[in-house]
Design goal:
The chain has 15 helices and 14 strands. By secondary structure, the protein is an alpha+beta fold. Strand 5 and strand 6 form a beta hairpin.
């Protein structure tokens, strides 16, 4: 062995020792000698033909260290130091309690799978190392991870290194390319067939090679393997089923303010956006809606730089009422897509009351387009009604179109006379439903007669079968005014605080 090889061996020895100190308990580590390490190292060194083969090998299953010769040595020493777990003999007994006392030693997967669920940000190979280090003691494993979580490399960092390594090894002549598992985002090298066409091939499945495999996936659509069926065409319905994301789910972070039953989050403009932070997503959503619709509105009261702050409000009672309304509409077969629309209020003190109690029909005073609560797709329009600008979630359901712009929305079809569900009802049930509808109509008629005697403007003029009114929608279906006459179809979400001449 020449001097250069000897230096390499010494360097490998130090790496092996450092790795063993992380893997083995201190008592067992004390029994490991440098001569033992060198002996195992030299054996593997002789079996490796070139220095290149000691470096990263994508086909090798690394466990302790990202250098093959070091990892092999550590594996051998750990294996030699490991003592087999005691095996209890199963003795037949008539006592059931005696049989229940027998405990099965958990396997590596039994520990690794739940541990990966708790620590998805840590590479599974590293977790496996820690499991071995603490001999499967779950308490010690978690205590170690929590104590060292800031120094442990993130999984995404490991995956970025993994991608760079395997991409450099891909052979274009063999049609090799990096492939990312759609679920865990781990990388591996795949070889593509010479003729691969989504229109001619029924399927081309790839297997996740992570320690905890995610299974097989279709190369074309990234869904789980679906043989013998072909890939499904992407539609709105499919996207809704597979990729639905609720950006408005209850936040699991402390609010900036708490007033009565509302939680307030103060969001400032930022140069960088972290899409893992729900508040950044909420801010981007509100800001983007404001700026996009400001441009379309054509007004000059606001400017793009006028946003000083956006406040996000949570109110559990109002949220549950809103979601219940959504479920009711869905049960009736009505589309429950939401719109983010603006509402202006002139008095600052009204803002907190609105987020506390919701927007109330009893507070409405002007009904130029009929009885209801008024919103606009355009902040400029809502600003006319008040400088305090709110951005609300509304369920428009089936909208009635008033003052349709030329070439705007397609002609609104008449509302359905019966729900599809009614076809499955028994005659007796249908009769009961008809009687209930008749009673409801009489009650509504009586209410309207009473209202006419009080205030002609308050008569509901959203026709039966519709859930909202769109006033003068443009060619893209954006309404100058949206009227909602059901309080539970409204959920106030944001307050946009502006600066400058129109600022609050």
């Amino acid at each position: 062995m020449d001097v250069e090889e000897s230096d390499d061996i010494m360097e490998f020895r130090d790496q092996v020792r450092e790795t063993l100190e992380d893997v083995l308990p201190s008592k067992k580590m004390a029994d490991v000698t440098d001569n033992q390490i060198l002996s195992v190292l030299e054996t593997h060194f002789k079996n490796i033909n070139s220095q290149e083969n000691t470096e990263m090998d994508t086909h090798y299953d690394y466990k302790y260290f990202p250098l093959k010769i070091v990892d092999l040595t550590v594996k051998d020493i750990v294996s030699s130091m490991a003592s087999p777990p005691p095996v209890r003999e199963l003795v037949s007994s008539s006592d059931p309690e005696e049989e229940e006392d027998f405990s099965i030693v958990p396997t590596l997967k039994d520990i690794l799978i739940p541990l990966s669920s708790v620590y998805p940000d840590i590479d599974p190979k590293y977790l496996r190392t820690i499991i071995d280090k603490f001999s499967g003691n779950t308490r010690n494993i978690q205590e170690y991870l929590e104590a060292n979580i800031e120094t442990i490399p993130e999984r995404r960092t490991i995956q970025a290194v993994q991608y760079r390594m395997i991409s450099a090894k891909c052979d274009n002549k063999k049609r090799e390319k990096p492939w990312e598992c759609p679920q865990c985002r781990s990388w591996s090298i795949i070889s593509l067939p010479k003729s691969l066409n989504i229109f001619t091939e029924s399927q081309f499945d790839l297997e996740c090679n992570e320690i905890i495999s995610c299974g097989s996936f279709c190369y074309f659509c990234n869904r789980k393997s679906h043989a013998p069926f072909k890939c499904r065409t992407t539609t709105t319905r499919v996207l809704q089923a597979e990729n639905e994301m609720d950006i408005f789910k209850k936040l699991d972070m402390p609010p900036d303010e708490v007033r009565a039953s509302i939680r307030i989050y103060n969001m400032k403009p930022k140069n960088d956006t972290n899409f893992a932070n729900p508040l950044d997503i909420l801010y981007t959503t509100a800001e983007g809606t404001f700026l996009r619709m400001l441009k379309r509105g054509g007004g000059h009261s606001f400017d793009r730089n006028f946003i000083k702050e956006i406040k996000y409000f949570e109110n559990d009672a109002l949220a549950e009422r809103f979601n219940e309304s959504k479920r009711r509409l869905e049960a009736q077969g009505i589309t429950c897509k939401e719109r983010l629309v603006f509402h202006g209020t002139p008095v600052t003190s009204n803002v907190e009351a609105i987020f506390q109690d919701g927007l109330l029909l009893s507070k409405c005073k002007r009904f130029a387009h009929g009885y209801g609560i008024y919103f606009s797709e355009f902040p400029d329009v809502s600003q006319v009604y008040g400088q305090n600008l709110l951005l609300c979630r509304v369920l428009v359901g089936r909208p009635y179109i008033e003052g349709r712009a030329s070439g705007s929305l397609s002609q609104q079809s008449a509302p359905p006379t019966a729900q599809p569900l009614a076809q499955a009802l028994a005659p007796q049930q249908l009769a009961q439903a008809a009687a209930q509808r008749q009673r409801a109509n009489l009650l509504q008629l009586g209410h309207q007669i009473w209202v006419r005697g009080q205030d002609q403007d308050r008569v509901r003029n959203i026709p039966d079968g519709y859930n909202s009114k769109f006033v003068s929608p443009d060619v893209d279906g954006k309404a100058q005014m949206i009227v909602i006459d059901k309080e539970d179809q409204i959920l106030p979400a944001f307050q946009i605080v502006t600066q400058g001449p129109t600022g609050s």
